[in-house]
Amino acid sequence: SKEKIALFTIFGGTGDLAKRKLYPSLYRLYKKGFLAEKFAVIGTARREWTDEYYRDIVMDSINGLAESYEHAAEFASHFYYQSHNVTDIEHYSTLKKLTETLDEKYQLEGNRLFYLAMSPNFFGIISQNLKDGLLLTDSGFNRLIIEKPFGHNYSSALELNEQIRASFAEDQIYRIDHYLGKEMVQNISAVRFANNMFESMWNNRYIDNIQITLSESLGVEERGGYYDTSGALRDMLQNHILQMVSLLAMEPPTRLHDKEIRAEKIKALQAVRLFKPEDVPHYLVRGQYGRSTVNGEHFEGYREELNVAPDSQTETFVAGKIMIDNFRWSGVPFYFRTGKRLAEKGTQIDIEFKNVPLNLFNDNSDEPLPPNVLTIYIQPTEGFSLELNTKKVGLGLETETLKLEQKHSAETTANSPEAYEKLILDCLNGDSTNFTHWDEVASSWKFVDIIRQAWDNETIDFPNYPSGSMGPIESDLLLTKDGFQWHWCP
Ligand code: NAD
After folding, report:
1. Whose CA is nearest to atom 12 of ligand 1?
2. 42, 217, 275, 477 — which has fewest CB within 10 A?
3. 84 and 44 in contact (C-beta within 8 Å)?
4. Is 80 exceeded by the pLDDT of residue 362?
5. 423 CB less than 6 Å from ligand 1?
6. How does pLDDT run across 416-440, given as a tens digit for each residue?
7. What spacing in Å lies between the alpha carbon of 225 and ligand 1's midpoint?
8. By C-alpha distance, which of 225, 229, 238 is closest to 154?
9. pLDDT category of residue 181 using cuts at 50, 70 and 90
10. Ligand 1 site, residue 118, Cβ cutoff 6 A
11. Is the dihedral of CA 9, 118, 53, 223 positive or negative?
């Protein structure tokens, strides 16, 4: 049977993430039979809610997904609400009682999954209270899923990790990076390790450069208060981008299992060149969006957004060049850029192959042929494309670029599992492949901290890119000075 058996305790059960992502994902698993009779969910938060009210909220959150009202109600009947202040140790004894009652009622075999869907400020205290309040079992599994951000620099991440590790072992901790739940990110391994054509060329002899773009068209919306203390570097580079870099750069693992993959990812991250503070301006570009009018629509600048300081030095854009100092990648730049209020929303990876040694097709100029490019589209549409040079039909020897493209249909995309659904199922299976290990977190913070410190020592003239562009001009110069350009130019 594929049925998984567990009690989920969701801290922050009244929150946005729980409603938008967690309840719908649990329902999808229920629909597919991964959750059936033997599961229960305790939602906790400070508010005083009844079970009935909570179940209504859960039903609302799966509205549109549900097979029928009865099916949704049956699902929701597994949900229980417990008002709870996470800092109050007394409250954990009430929680323990409910946990034990449900464990028995649903025959949950002592399997416990704790999901911390609330501010990371509370991760340490919750972990400690779960242990001190005797909520961890000896009979089943104890697993902890935690949300980002994991610290705001290396030392705070280390401190947080030590707090959590006092109650949970590394292999019980599942640190979410929802990018790792995306189908196409997981597909990076398939592209590489299932196609000899690519794997044999996956190195500095054949690849010229790799470009990763995570572009958002929206601004900070109502998250200005949080974002202004974070910025693009911490919000995107430390986790999502470095995770993608490690998947692209790692050596082939001996098996596609969590321990083996993780070991290779960590080795790749440890080979990422750490910059000296004085090198930072040569490798990194930061930006902040300013006001502009695009197609008649007016956009405010970042500094005019709600809860953002009018002289904010927070970057809403970062681009950079990562170098990996190992045999496979020596000399190959991994460029990345990410930002808000850019021209188009989308995430894609472009892999540019080296040119043929000589262009035989152009007698009159030294123009090289366009490079072969493999593109992995991650969102909003998933798919691939491969650009090849072919002969133009006609008498001459002119070439043109042929783009072989496969993008998943809207239907396939709609039916593909949600990132959170996949990740929750992975956790139920005890598979940590798509979660971040502490060693990965540590390496990436060390890389990011150097950049942050260099930037904090120097004020910059913001804003420096208009809303609706692809970032500051320096982002383009970063590549042109190496003889490249961004492949994706919306
Ligand atoms: P939220 O503010 O909507 O919810 C926070 C929850 O914590 C609420 O249920 C609140 O009642 C509860 N809470 C706060 N203080 C408490 C206390 N002392 N005792 C008990 N409960 C308390 O936040 P959110 O957007 O759901 O985000 C939760 C976590 O998920 C954060 O770490 C966030 O960074 C992360 N995250 C959220 C999203 C998203 O889409 N919302 C995406 C990625 C990561």
Report:
1. 12
2. 477
3. yes
4. no
5. no
6. 788 899 999 999 999 999 999 999 9
7. 15
8. 238
9. confident
10. yes
11. negative
Spell out the alpha helix ranges (H) of 40-199. 51-61, 69-76, 90-105, 123-132, 154-165, 183-193, 196-199
Residue 105, burial from CB neighbour count under 10 angstroms (0-12, 13-18, 19+): exposed
Protein residue whose Cα sits closest to atom 28 of ligand 1: 118
| pLDDT above 70: percentage of residues in the chain | 99
Taking each continuous run of H as one helix and of E as one strand, the counts in the chain are 18, 18
Question: Residues 315, 341: contact at Cβ < 8 Å?
Answer: no
117 close to ligand 1 (CB < 6 Angstrom): yes
What's the pTM value of the predicted model, to 2 decimals?
A: 0.94
Residue 116 in tokens: 């911390």
Q: Pick the closest to residue 325 from 260, 212, 236, 249 (CA basis).
A: 249
C-alpha 47/C-alpha 50 separation (Å) is 10
Please name every residue paired with 287 in a beta bridge, in sequence order, or none if there are none. Answer: 317
Q: How confident is the model at residue 323 (pLDDT cuts 50, 70, 90)?
A: very high
C-alpha to C-alpha distance for 19 and 388, rounded to whole angstroms: 45
Report the nearest-CA residue for atom 22 of ligand 1. Answer: 45
| pLDDT for residue 73 is more than 70 | yes
Q: Which residues are catalytic?
A: 240
354: which 2 tokens?
């080296």
* Binding-site sequence positions for substrate: 178, 182, 216, 235, 340, 345
pLDDT digits 0-9 by tens, 210-240: 999 999 999 999 999 999 999 999 999 999 9
- The three-class DSSP label of residue 473 is helix
Q: Is 16 in the pocket of ligand 1 (CB under 6 A)?
A: yes
Q: Is residue 225 in contact with ligand 1, taking CB distance under 6 Å?
A: no
17 C-alpha to ligand 1 centroid (Å): 7
Residues at the binding site for NADP(+) are: 12-19, 46, 148
In degrees and rounded to multiples of 5, residue 150 shows phi and psi of: -95, 85
* Radius of gyration of the chain from its Cα atoms, rounded to whole angstroms: 24
Among 42, 49, 119, name the best residue to mutate to test ligand 1's pocket (greatest count of ligand atoms within 8 A of Cβ).
119
**How many whole angstroms from 15 Cα to the centroid of ligand 1?**
5
Q: How far is CA 390 from CA 163, 197, 362, 363, in A?
A: 59, 19, 13, 16
The Cα–Cα gap between 275 and 450 comes to 7
pLDDT surpasses 70 at 365: no
ipTM: 0.96
Q: Give residue 149 CA to ligand 1 midpoint distance, Å.
A: 12
* Residue 235 in contact with ligand 1 by CB distance below 6 A: no
